[in-house]
Design goal:
Blueprint lengths: L25 H8 L11 H5 L2 H11 L7 H17 L4 H15 L4 H16 L10 H8 L13
């Protein structure tokens, strides 16, 4: 399953209004995350909005037990971290990623702690991009939703 698969259906109307689908506000992201059955306002929305300026919102919502779309927010953390690592992130991006990794490592949410462990290992190991020595499996893991199917400590 691709990272946003099932969250966007072409031609299906999404009742949640986002003024600028490319640059949603934090309030719009939060409203989307708290809307049961919400669909992405456009195809590949997760790839479009997985940016530094939204990372803390993703983290906050992924760790909030009352958030109905926590899994999607966790997915966004994986996509953002993968993009940050793959891009050879600038110092500010790397610092933000390390700060969220540290927060998650000390947090109570098991899934986000697993993300933290995986992100730290990948960040320290050079990243998931096959063109830079990472494996195709790593790329699929971070960018195509493979993290959903692999439990910590297993190879598949």
């Amino acid at each position: 399953m691709a990272c946003g698969e099932g969250l966007y259906e072409a031609g299906k109307r999404n009742e949640l209004r986002v003024k600028d689908r490319i640059n949603p506000t934090h309030d719009e992201i939060q409203a989307w995350a708290r809307t049961p059955g919400a669909l992405y306002p456009m195809e590949d929305w997760d790839l479009v909005i997985a940016r530094d300026e939204n990372a803390e919102v993703f983290y906050r919502l992924a760790t909030d037990p009352s958030c109905v779309n926590r899994d999607a927010m966790l997915n966004l953390l994986y996509v953002w971290a993968g993009q940050t690592i793959r891009a050879g992130s600038n110092q500010a991006s790397a610092a933000l990623l390390r700060r969220l990794i540290a927060l998650a490592a000390g947090g109570r949410d098991d899934d986000v702690r697993v993300w933290s462990n995986r992100a730290e290992r990948t960040l320290d190991g050079g990243g998931p991009d096959p063109r830079a020595g990472g494996s195709n499996e790593d790329y699929a893991f971070w960018f195509l939703g493979g993290w959903r199917h692999r439990r910590e400590g297993s190879s598949s």
